[in-house]
TrEMBL record:
This is FAD-dependent oxidoreductase. It comes from the Bacteria. Gene3D superfamilies: D-Amino Acid Oxidase, subunit A, domain 2, FAD/NAD(P)-binding domain, Rieske [2Fe-2S] iron-sulphur domain. Keywords: 2Fe-2S, Disulfide bond, Iron, Iron-sulfur, Metal-binding. It comes from Paenibacillus filicis. Pfam families: DAO (PF01266), Rieske (PF00355). InterPro entries: FAD-dep_OxRdtase (IPR006076), FAD/NAD-bd_sf (IPR036188), Rieske_2Fe-2S (IPR017941), Rieske_2Fe-2S_sf (IPR036922), Rieske_Fe-S_prot_C (IPR005805), YhfW_C (IPR038010). Residues 425-514 form the Rieske domain. CDD domains: Rieske_YhfW_C.
Amino acid sequence: MKLNPFSTESVLPEYSKSYWLDSAPPRSFPPLKEDLEVDYAIVGAGITGVTLAYLLTAEGHRVALLDAHEILSGTTGHTTAKVTVQHDLIYRELIDNFGVDQAALYYKANREALEFMRRTAAELPGRCDWQEEDAYLYAQTVKGAGQLQQEYEAYRQLGIPVEELDDVPLPFQAHKALRLAGQAQFHPMAYMNGLVERIVAAGGFIFGHTQIAEQVEEGERPVLSTMEGKRITCRHVISSSHYPFYDGLGLYFTRIHSERSYILAVKPSSEYPGGMYLSADEPKRSLRAVTIGGEPYVLIGGDTHKTGQGEQMDEHYRHLEQFARQTLGVESIAYRWSAQDWVTLDKLPYVGPLTSSHSNIWVATGFRKWGMTNGTAAALLLRDQLLGRPNPYGELVTPSRFKAVPGLQTLITENADVAKHLIKGKLEAGSREADQLGLDEGGVVQVDGKRAGAYKDPQGNLYVVDTTCTHLGCEVNWNKGERSWDCPCHGSRFDYKGEVLEGPASKPLKRIEV
Ligand code: FES
């Protein structure tokens, strides 16, 4: 639809759908139907799991890659697909918290991941739409410009080749930017699908729709079980499922939290100058070009918030649409989608043994929206650790690290937030009956005087669920933007029928018959 540039009428698509998944859907794999013995069992088929499976099968190892849903349908299929070491404002903070040497290691690990992806993409069909681009962090406020100045000094301390610009090549006003040359953007599903074909060709096993139970039989040869009772015996278990499917007394639910962010594929009414941009100011705004159906579009992302918390969640898409109108102009919007990311207490990923007492159960999580390079770096590190090779990055991201500042402060704040939402949810009751909902409307209702959640689909079918999250008992909230139930405590998400979309919960919400 072509929009009058002066119109304020929303042209948002009604439903979420990722352009990446729509234009290059992942291959579908059947569930595991029989017991299996492998060297490495990898749980979670996003960028980390797929890259690791690719690396291990390429060296002749027997690998099973398992996912509770269709492979690659999680965060990897919903990224902005910027391949860059410019991870928002981070290097100043890393230097302050960990010192120059550790901050430099973070940069190097991500730089190596970028180079690995560049080489790999060049070998895959169509080069995965790989395009070299500059990355920019830009500021529109005095505060943002001050933060950029500090970040610039951090780049210089670390020897990162950066350029400071007062004249920012954006078609809207910005005070200042930091430019990193030699970064890239690509089609993430073209890349991932290419790796999947290589895993299969090398004899790797891939299973979709295979949920792994939360318990692992630990030992020299750990055993995983699927919800259907099939057993996978292996030498090493690797959890690359964002939230670790097995906690193993690692207390991950106290150490990571999830955030959601939003993306629109906008056909602008003005010319986009190229480059990958991210604002230093809040609310965050991310921009990059993409070609859809031969036409130039811009992916506009941002409006991050903690999962299950905040205002009516379809409003986030409207905020991005408003930003697009004010900056580039909007002819049409082809896609909208959202993504979930995990953040650790100190913002560095957790990659390595699940706890200090585990030697054959491994985890990779906490990529803080920068999963393209962080997820690839995690796979490269795990490959080396699993095969007993030296790698300089293990200590930096080991999940067993503990640093009092900022870890302890954040630990207290995060867990106070969980407690607040646990209590708040229990006190909130619905004021309506389920059948008072309109078509395509969901929300908290009362059933027999008790809190419940209901959604009435466009055909008038009613789906009522118990809103108590099956993870640790917080009350889930209705996400109008995605028609899902989202938990404000640790980020589990359920579809309107109550089926699990994202963990840590592994069991569906209880259905209520009305
Ligand atoms: Fe932990 Fe819901 S995700 S209580």
